[in-house]
Amino acid sequence: MRSYLKIIFIPFLIIFIALDLYADIIPSKERETNINEQIIEYIIDGDVINLSSNLEKEFNIVVNEYDESKYSILLLHGRGLYPTEPNVIEPLRTRFSNQKINTYSLQLPVLDKGKTYYDYKKIFNYSNSRISSAVEFIASDKLIIIAHSCGTHMLTSWINNTKDFSNISGLVLIGAGAIDKNQFLDDIIDYEIINMPILNIYGENDHDSVKDHSLVFNKKIKKNLETKSQNIQIDNSDHNYLDHSNSLVNIVNSWLKSL
Asked: What is the pTM of this model?
């Protein structure tokens, strides 16, 4: 009898686990609403615009636009954060805004706290749609995309799934490759094929997975004819660039001026 029950139970258990692994996950609207109430509504140096995508009715983008801007910048924050992410995105946003550069900081989809890279991979279809909507809204023929941490994963997913990114003039990857312990990065950009300048930045005390990505990036760009691509380490910095925001902003700013 027990053997018979095992024969019935085990296949159902396997099916249940498989369904759970591939089950659809949707972004946490509750957490995003909390972000809007606690962070977004208090922004006074930019306009908060509502966008929509083919998957979602509403999400925010923080906009600073200027008539004299020579190019536009789209900012993508880290995991579970917001368009004014401290130490990284917000210092970049305010510096570019002060320089009268069109700047757009997108609210990416978020999950409940404690979720991992593998969890976030399941909502990359939502981030793909949001990034596409943002790029369409910006409508710039010279767009630079700057992403931090999980934002780089979402950017990579978008690049690998979009059919046309000819209006993208360059990428800045900050802390790219950050994944959780015992997980593996399987969303990467083909650096040997993509034809645009890329700046990769990482901290000296960054995650091991980020340092591993920097080594891969360095090997790939040496094979590429795109000579403006660079791989830069910020000494003494960690993944969140605490106390190193100025160095980060200055490096990005100098690189953009070289394009």
From this structure: 0.90
